[in-house]
Amino acid sequence: MQRKIVKMQDLTNGNEGKLIFKFAAPMLLGNVFQQLFSVVDSVVVGNFVGKEALAAIGASFPIVFMLVSLIMGLVMGITVIISQYFGARNYDRVISAIDTMYIASTIGGLLAIAAGLLSTEPLLKLLGTPVEIMPQATQYLRIYFSGIIIFFGFNGTSAVLRGLGDSKTPLYFLIIATVVNIILDLLFVAVFRWGIAGAAYATLVANGIAFGLAIYWLNKTHKLIRISVRGLRFDKEIFAQSIRIGLPTGIQQTLISIGNLALVSIVNKFGTNVLAGFSVANRIDMLATIPAMSFSQALSTFVGQNIGAKKTERIRTGLISTLKMAGSVTIVTTVFIVLWGNLLMRMFTKDLEVIRIGDQYLTIVSTFYFMFTLMFIFSGIMRGAGDTFFPMIFSLISLWIIRIPLAYILSGRIGASGIWWAIPAGWLIGLMLSFFYYRTGRWKTKAVVKYYDNL
User: Fold this and answer.
1) How confident is the model over 50-100, as pLDDT tens digits?
2) Is residue 326 situated within a structural domain?
3) Total tally of structural domains belonging to the chain
4) Which one of 128, 249, 264, 288 has the lowest number of neighbouring Cβ atoms within 10 Å?
C-alpha cells in the first residue's frame, strides 16, 4: 500500500502576507490549545478544589517555566537552523539537525527532571509561597517534573515541524492532547477527587499519549523525520551552531522565568487572594498574547527559509504584512478583554475579591497589548535570521531594569496594582530597543547560511 507523505510548506515563493497567515493560523490555534492545558487545570481546580489550590498552581507555574526554558531555547536554535537549511534545499543537513535536536532534548529533559525534583520545595520557600498552599504546590510540581521529558519531546517535535514549514500537524496532536487533558482533568479531579495532583497527572498523561501518537504517525508518513533510538546521529557542528543561536534565547527565557519568580514573590506579599487573582488573570493574559507570539514564530520561519533561499528582499514585505495582521487581532483582543474581563474571571472562581483583583490586572495590562505585539514581531525577524543575542539583551533590560524594580517600588506605594502597571512599562522599553536595533540592519549578518543582501 502506498503511504501518504506529509507535505512541507515552502515559504520562499508566493504572496508573503498570504503565506505567513496560512502558516500562522494553525500555529495560533496550536498555541491556544497549548495554553488550554494550564487554563483547564485552573478552571477545574478552581471550581472543584478551591482558591488555595488555584493559588498553588499559580505559584508553581513560573518554576516549571524556568526549568524548561533553557532547553527549549536550545531547541529553538536548531529550529532556526532547520528552516534555513530547508530554504537552501540542503536536506542532509536538515536531517542531521533533527537528529541532533532529539539527542540534545533527551539529555536536557533528564537533567531537568533531576533538577526539578531536587529544587521544588527550596524554590517555593525562597519565593515566600504562603504556608497554606505550600503542600499542594509542592505536590503539583513534583508530579509535573517527573514527566518533563515528555514535554520536551512533544514540543521539540512540534518545533521541528514548524521549521520545515508544517504548522498543521502540530495542531492536530495538540488538539488530541488538549481533549484528553480536559477529560482526564474532570475524571481525576471532579470524579476521583484526587485534588491538585489529579490536574498534574492529567497533563502528564495527555502529553504522553499525544507524543506517542506523533512518533508513530510521523515515522509512517514523513519524508525527513524518523524517530528511532538506533537511527539518531549527533552532529557536533550543528550542535555548536544551535548553541550559538539557541543559548541566548535559552538564557533569555530562563532569566525571564526567574524574573517571573521575582514578580510572584512580590505578589505573594499581598496574600492568597491577590496570588489567586494574579494566577487566573495571568492565564487569560497568556491566551490573549498568543496571536502576537504565533505571528512572530511564523515570521521567524518565513525569514529563515527566505534567507536560506537567498530571497532576503521578501522579508520587508513579510514584516509589513505581519504587523498589519497581528495588529488587527491585538486590537480586537484588547477590546474584548477590557469589556468582558470580569466575566472571564468568573469562569475560574466564584470568589468576588479574587475576581476583582484579576479584572483590575486585565484592564491595566490589556490596554498595552499593542506594544507587546510590536516588540515580538521585531524580535521574530531577528531570531529568524539567527541573531538571538540582542533580543536577549533587550528582553533582560525591559524585565530586570524596568519591570521588576518598578513593580517593587510601585507596589509599596499604590499596592498590588503597581505590579500590574510595571508590566507594560517593561514592554515599552523592550519595543523601543527592538525597533531601533532592527533599523540598524546588523541582524542580517547572523545567518547560518552565509548570505545576506540589502533589505
Assistant:
1) 878 878 887 787 777 776 666 666 667 777 788 788 878 888 888 888 888
2) yes
3) 2
4) 128
